[in-house]
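Problem: given the chain below (182 residues), write out its structure.
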Amino acid sequence: MTGFGRWLRDVWLAVVTIAQGMVVTIRYMLATFHPRRKAFTQRFEYPELPVPVRPRYRGFHRYDLTTCIACDQCARACPIDCIYIEKERNPVGKGFRVISFTIDYTKCMFCGLCTYPCPVDCIYMGQTHDLSAYSRDSLIVDFAKLPLEIAWGLGTLNPTAVAESKVIPEPVWLPAAQASGK
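Solution.
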């Protein structure tokens, strides 16, 4: 076969295979089309009302800071090391006190393996499926710095609470004029 004939055959095969794929796509579209079907945002009112999820859905974690004993079992069970726990010895009594309980959601694969070894059931998978963020830093959540209703497991994790927990309440440095007393 000559060069032009081969090229013509390749063009013909490309057009035929694309047409076959489009026939399958159009057939499926027509089989599933329903004129009364609404758009996703019309059915669920998504930003205002949460989307219904199944009971066993593994969403963003819920964490109860009051019951955590800082045993590090969840961090050890995590297969990709996305849980970081900082603790200090409790000055009163025995045990530890949680200083920082951080989950890096840029690495988390939502397997739920961190919830099983917890002896006091302070960490469990929640129903929140959307933690939108504009930067990767917003996906690193320190549960010890969140507002109390979320840190104690009473509220759901939301982007606003995560953003507010990262705001430093007082200045880190003083300008030179203030430091010298002028």
